[in-house]
Write a structure and sequence with these properties.
homodimer, alpha/beta, 60s Ribosomal Protein L30, Chain: A, Alpha/beta knot, 2 domains, six-stranded parallel β-sheet, five-stranded mixed β-sheet, 10 helices
């Protein structure tokens, strides 16, 4: 596997990708680790631009990467452990970084290509929750996630880490305003299912057939009244009352599980 | 509300509680924020020893705390914003810290007092997952969590933060060796339910009646063969195959949901 040394300027540019402003400007994002690298190589949603490895990368990781790259051409840059630590957002940098294009998808695909399940997130600010929701969605076969205008950037490194490589299997659609969602749901025949702290039907009674958009809001505030009013179905996760609220990613897991189309 | 200034020595002792060694030695742990403070005041599992507030605590928080303390005597210490930031493990310290006794519970309560559901965790190293599992457990009315010897310390500040105050409603039993669990399950009539990546029954087929211990292991390794062999039931969360694994707290949410005793 041929590698080129990572120049100082190159490293500087990559470091800046930790900031949203630069991710937007460059249209790129960073993901870390062998899992992310494997998924980036396999997927085609987020074209892989380059790979950065630490010179002290363990032999087995190096051999694995060589094999993966035997039939593909991707530039590989090598750098010191100190450099990779600087680029990494993890406590223990894993020695492999990938740089990918942040390509947003669109809701407006031909009607026949629309999936049966879409997740719509409003006002999500927690990186861990967003990444975990990507991962759980993909686990249940849901590969399209739309984000309202006030959500955290899904290309944020912490989101990508929490997604455990699954971002590469998920199509993201950013900045989907509520009105856009409503008209989309109406023309394409989706039911909007909103989580409500009380008064909704139990998750087990959610319909399993047909097209559904699952609406999820931030834990503390919940969904906006605009979304609640436009929802076709309200759903409430039963609880003992002993805990004030459920973690958003935990609630999402239960709803994705109950509306799954996988056997 | 009477407050005393926080002395330098006192602050130093509290700072050390970020380390497991000192938590063990002092038998104390720290929790942050108004939610945690409210739950610490209400619960009696983890006796509240003292409260630390920042001198710039907003008036509404201060008034709330005064009301809560009108019928109770708990020492309150005040300190500067810089001091509270030093004690806090959060990016934006919330101005209220509570110091509580870390009182472990025991599995050996009288048979009649045993709850129908217990969660047993093996080898959990992720603080966010453990805190979220506490929260989800309590949501579904499960208030007893046993931890195997190799788990992260549940009094770790990040665990407590992720639990969102629910630790105060949960009885924790640390260092429960597998053999101890097996003999407990046998004498007290619990079924051990183990998550398995494949080959188990679907979560919906888990029995809802009787006594269950839900066994959960770390995502990457799963449960040890010892636990798997002793389990009465294996359960597998169905998936599309598109994601390699499910986040542990997400899997726990689905299993707690399917075995819930709440309506």
């Amino acid at each position: 596997m041929d590698t080129e040394p990572l120049s100082l300027n190159h490293k500087r540019r990559l470091r800046k990708l930790r900031l949203k402003k630069y991710r937007e400007r460059e249209g790129l994002f960073l993901a870390e680790g062998r899992n992310a690298c494997r998924e980036a190589l396999r997927g085609d949603r987020y074209p892989l631009r380059e790979i950065i490895i630490s010179r002290d990368l363990p032999d087995n990781d190096r051999e694995w990467l060589s094999r993966e790259l035997s039939s593909r051409t991707v530039p590989v840059y090598s750098c010191s452990r100190a450099d990779i630590n600087e680029l990494s957002s993890e406590e223990h940098a894993r020695g492999i970084l990938v740089v990918c294009k942040s390509v947003d998808s669109s809701l407006d695909t031909p009607n026949n290509d629309q999936p049966d399940r879409i997740v719509y997130l409003e006002g999500i600010s927690d990186a861990g929750n967003l990444g975990t929701i990507m991962r759980t969605s993909l686990w249940f076969g849901v590969n399209r996630i739309a984000l309202g205008p006030s959500c955290i950037d899904p290309y944020n490194t912490k989101v990508i880490r929490a997604s455990a490589g699954t971002i590469f299997g998920v199509s993201l659609i950013r900045d989907v305003a509520a009105e856009k969602l409503f008209s989309f749901a109406e023309t394409q025949g989706y039911d909007l299912v909103a989580t409500s702290p009380r008064g909704g039907i139990p998750p087990a009674e959610l319909k399993k057939e047909g097209r559904i958009v699952l609406l999820l809001g931030e834990e503390s505030r919940g969904l906006s009244s605009e979304l609640m009013e436009h929802a076709h179905t309200l759903v409430t996760v039963p609880g003992s009352g002993a805990a004030e609220s459920l973690n958003l990613a935990a609630a999402a897991a239960i709803l994705l599980y109950e509306t799954r189309t996988v056997p």
